[in-house]
Write a structure and sequence with these properties.
Layout lengths: L6 E4 L3 H13 L6 E4 L2 H9 L15 E4 L8 H9 L9 E5 L4 H9 L4 E4 L4 H16 L8 E3 L5 E3 L13
Parallel strand pairs: 1-2, 1-3, 3-4, 4-5, 5-6
Antiparallel strand pairs: 6-7
Helix pairs in contact: 1-5, 2-3
């Protein structure tokens, strides 16, 4: 397990952030959590600019949980920027959103998201979801494929991706 790699959470809703922090603790996930509140902060953090210029204090994440609807830049704009940066080609990005709209899910897949998850309303389900996301995208030797989670919440492995396991983190 890659317990020391930070998880970058891009979420503008303070209540959702508080719930996620509690859920990470409940799930026993030891990774440090870094929270940014909008798309512009995501890019500044990843680029090491502005307040985030000191890499020792703000290390690169091993996983990013990205909300779709944020101020300044939405999740699609952020995802487009991330996938346009060669140094982040192997960064697992999981969209964690309240949107159940199929076109948004399809668009995120085409843009290179690793996983698309709808935020559950139940705390126990959130704990389970975060534990699964961490296991899939941060555990060494994990063989999770990029997947689509149907609106009903059932997992459905995707076909047509060249590799079924996540690329190694550089």
């Amino acid at each position: 397990m890659l317990d020391k790699l930070p998880i970058l959470i891009a979420e503008d809703n303070k209540n959702d952030v508080a719930l996620m922090r509690r859920a990470f603790v409940e799930a026993g996930i030891p990774n440090p959590l870094i929270v940014v509140r909008n798309g512009r902060e995501v890019i500044e953090y990843l680029a090491g600019q502005g307040d985030y210029a000191e890499r020792a204090k703000y290390p690169l994440p091993g996983l990013m949980l990205l909300d779709l609807k944020m101020p300044w830049m939405d999740g699609f704009d952020v995802l487009s920027w991330v996938r346009g940066q060669p140094q982040f080609a192997g960064l697992p990005v999981v969209l964690l959103t309240s949107s159940k709209l199929r076109p948004e899910e399809v668009q995120s897949r085409l843009m290179g998201v690793y996983d698309y998850r709808v935020k559950p309303h139940d705390f126990a389900e959130l704990v389970s979801l975060l534990a699964d996301v961490r296991k899939c995208w941060l555990d060494e030797g994990s063989n999770c494929s990029r997947r689509i989670v149907e609106v009903s919440g059932r997992d459905q492995s995707t076909n047509g991706h060249s590799g079924n396991s996540r690329p190694p983190l550089d």
